[in-house]
UniProtKB/TrEMBL annotation:
This is Nudix hydrolase domain-containing protein. PROSITE patterns: NUDIX, NUDIX_BOX. PANTHER family: ADP-RIBOSE PYROPHOSPHATASE YJHB-RELATED, GDP-MANNOSE MANNOSYL HYDROLASE. It comes from Micromonospora sonchi. Keywords: Hydrolase. The keyword Ubl conjugation does not apply. It holds the Pfam family NUDIX. Residues 1-129 form the Nudix hydrolase domain.
């Protein structure tokens, strides 16, 4: 599950650090399903755990699915959900996992940092292009 938290034409990204995977790269708030959890429950939980933002389960809108293969050949399918950020409704985002994240920051959706993780970049591109499905890391 990946979250595209949008504010005007900006997307919130987190800089990975201390995880041993994709450290030093910007990514979307994201995570995996826990046992017995459905996709909406997972994105609401991951959002709260990673950036301290409280979403109502009715808010996340699935905007794209990305089939990504990393440089090691491992593949995953990600469901990307979008939520328009409202500071009054959601509270201000914070780095709620400093042991996994160096910082969070808003970036223009059309000008992501060069060190954005390819999976995240593919999700943002698909969202901006209104593509319901995208491939990333496949030749």
């Amino acid at each position: 599950m990946l979250l595209l938290l949008t504010h005007a034409d900006y997307i919130l990204l987190a800089l990975r650090e201390g995880t041993g995977y994709a450290d030093g790269q910007w990514n979307l708030p994201s995570g995996k399903l826990e046992h017995g959890e459905h996709a909406i429950t997972a994105i609401v939980r991951e959002t709260r755990e990673e950036i301290g933002v409280c979403l109502d389960p009715s808010e996340p809108l699935m905007v794209t699915t990305v089939h990504h293969r990393n440089s090691g050949g491992l593949a995953r399918i990600g469901l990307a959900f979008a939520v328009a950020f409202d500071p009054i409704l959601h509270g201000e985002p914070v780095n709620a996992e400093p042991h996994k994240c160096a910082q969070i920051e808003w970036f223009p959706a059309d000008l992501l940092p060069s060190n954005t993780y390819p999976y995240t970049a593919a999700c943002v591109r698909a969202f901006r292009d209104r593509a319901p499905f995208a491939l990333s890391g496949w030749s």
